[in-house]
Amino acid sequence: HATLQTVDLTSGDGVDRVAAAQAAAEGLPDLADEVARLARAAVDSDVVRTAVAHPHWRELYVAAPVGAVTVEGFVDLLYDGPDGLVIVDYKTDRIGSYADADAALARHRLQLATYALVVETTLDRPVAGAALVFVRGSETRTRWVHDLPGAVEELRARLS
Question: pTM, whole model, 2 decimals?
Fold first, then answer.
């Protein structure tokens, strides 16, 4: 995550240097090559390529009151595409199959709904989409929340 918030998302320039610095900062210098490989895969993903072609923001802190609670978090990547705002969250879950990716999406669905709710509340604009980019080795798998408004309503119900 820290590498992706710093590296040039358009070209990937500097990924090895940034990954080495971030791995060292986390006390894991031996994992620098793996961090760089994961970051390159994310930069090369279709959803990140789409994001960087539009106004976008990385590692965006978001917070808003929802009922009696304040909801907060960090959005890995938010972009303003032709259909509106889109949230992208990077994951390193172990995904071996498409069924695994779908199960992981189900686990993270309300996290994305939380981000969408907070962004919508703060900006008074709807979020058009939310995606998880699962990064493993040099590959990615992207999963979109198919019913984001429904997930947001489920979240509202749980929070109330």
Answer: 0.91
C-alpha span between 111 and 94 (Å, rounded)? 18
Write the single-letter amino acid at 98. Y
Cβ partners under 8 Å of residue 89, min gap 6 = 75, 76, 77, 108, 111, 112, 115, 130, 131, 132, 133
Yes or no: say if 137 and 41 are a contact pair by the CB < 8 Å rule. yes
Rounded Cα gap, residues 116 and 126, in angstroms: 8
Find out whether 114 and 91 touch, Cβ atoms under 8 Å: no
Taking the CA atoms of 108, 93, 104 and 40 in sequence, report the sign of the dihedral they define: positive
* Predicted pLDDT of residue 106: 87
Cβ(43)–Cβ(31) under 8 Å? no
- When pLDDT is cut at 50, 70 and 90, the band that residue 9 belongs to is very high
Phi, psi angle pair for 153, to nearest 5°: -65, -40
Which tokens go with 126?
A: 């709807």
Residues 6+ apart with CB under 8 A from 117: 64, 66, 71, 152, 155, 156
Compute the radius of gyration of the chain from its Cα atoms: 16
